[in-house]
Specification:
The chain is α+β, with helices and mostly antiparallel strands. Helices cover 29% and strands 29% of the residues. It is elongated, with a radius of gyration of 23 Å.
């Protein structure tokens, strides 16, 4: 038997260990992403009213990763503490960018893109190392603006949002679930003072076709029970199909169900979460969902043929993250006296003036915007189990392989349409 040299054995062991560590780190990153998503969502539910809500945790975490590249001292420590990792670590950075490239690949009618724009006051001298890192960071651009001339800055923000929207490769009406974010509408909130130094705007866009599309002819106007017990008529989509479905319990023994509908290509899927008891308010379930709960879905969902009822819905949310992120532990970044971004520029006084996030969602039978009245038809019901989202529910759009939460939100009233 041929013997391997000691050096070769060492290299073999090192490669095996490195592969194992990389896999373990990836698992840890997925858990950290989920934990951040849940913390972010819980914080928003505390500050927002009981209306429809949507947020993109992936978009926000990547934007915070960009800030990490230029943060130092306690500013960096707070960002790292909130996210659970430091993107200045080459292995962590590689995992994040690799995952982003995987999700951003266009395939079989599915398209997802995340962009981040860092607007920096003209005249601030940027470090070449930061600009080089930012250029390779998840579709990031650094734009010079003059915050003292708001009209010109407004047009730059609007062009950023318009260019992003125009880059969508799918035709309007070819997708069955549409989620997007734009920097354009943020301009109205940025009116501004001469003291501003840096503004962060992140955008995220998704368009996809259901693996099995709903038929318009199966949609009926039916009652949707609101949280106060009243009812509104909404277009309720229907199909009999095979889905992944599971029944779960929270730590307080509250029962709830999860339905998963895949998009074409099965890279992303939409998960709909509904309390099992009709009288249990959605807020009771929201407060008890944890990263560990979501992890249990991976093994608890089973393929089942079901009658699925899901309302069409459309919503839009805009957030100034300056009022949200401090509650998660990120405080110094927004404080002119405490922020340390000497990794961006050696000049003193650089801080995040504002950080904006906007998301829209539209879910329909096949993605087209129906203007005609819904046809009323009688459906022959099978004896299959029924999942009927006719009361407030949660939804998550997740990456299938990693479980990353691209979008998360709740539908309190499908009739409350976004503009």
């Amino acid at each position: 038997m041929r013997r391997l040299p000691v050096a070769s054995l060492f290299i073999c062991f090192w490669l095996v260990e490195r592969s194992h560590c990389s896999g373990s780190l990836q698992d840890s990153m997925e858990e950290l992403h989920t934990r951040f998503a849940m913390d972010l969502y819980h914080t928003l539910t505390e500050t927002e009213n009981k209306s429809n809500l949507i947020v993109s945790p992936v978009s926000i975490s990547l934007s915070l990763g960009l800030l990490q590249l230029g943060a130092r001292g306690s500013t960096l420590a707070q960002l790292e503490g909130t996210l659970g990792y430091n993107v200045n670590d080459a292995v962590v950075q590689d995992l994040l960018l690799h995952s982003q490239r995987d999700m951003g690949n266009t395939s079989q009618g599915m398209w997802l893109q995340q962009t981040c724009t860092l607007f920096i006051q003209s005249g601030v001298q940027l470090l070449s190392e930061f600009t080089q890192q930012a250029a390779s960071w998840a579709n990031t651009s650094v734009v010079r603006v003059n915050f003292g001339h708001p009209n010109h800055t407004r047009s730059q923000l609007e062009r950023s949002g318009q260019n992003h929207d125009e880059s969508w490769p799918l035709q309007s009406g070819s997708s069955s679930g549409e989620l997007s974010g734009s920097g354009e509408a943020q301009a109205e909130a940025l009116w501004w003072s001469h003291r501003l130094q840096m503004a962060l705007v992140n955008t995220v866009t998704f368009r996809g076709i259901w693996q099995k599309q709903f038929l318009f002819t199966n949609t009926q106007n039916v009652p949707f029970i609101l949280s106060d017990g009243s009812a509104v008529k909404v277009p309720m989509m229907y199909q009999a199909t095979e889905v992944r479905f599971g029944q779960f319990r929270t730590s307080s023994d509250q029962r709830y169900t999860v339905l998963e509908l895949p998009y074409l290509g099965r890279v992303l899927s939409l998960q709909v979460v509904l309390p099992s008891e009709r009288k249990v308010p959605l807020s009771s379930l929201e407060s008890q969902l944890t990263a560990r709960q979501l992890a249990s879905w991976d093994t608890g969902l089973r393929r089942t043929r079901m009658d699925v009822f899901l309302p069409r819905f459309r919503m839009q949310n805009k957030f100034n993250l300056r009022s949200v992120l401090p509650a998660l532990g990120i405080r110094d970044a927004f404080n002119p006296g405490a922020a340390d971004f000497t990794g961006i520029s050696v000049e003193e006084g650089l801080y995040v003036s504002d950080a904006f996030h906007e998301v829209r969602i539209e879910v329909t039978e096949d993605g087209t915007k129906a203007a005609a009245a819904t046809a009323m038809v009688l459906l022959k019901r099978s004896r299959a189990p029924v999942f009927k989202a006719d009361r407030p529910f949660l939804f998550l759009l997740r990456e299938v392989n990693t479980g990353s939460i691209v979008f998360m939100g709740r539908v309190m009233n499908p009739a409350d349409q976004a503009p």
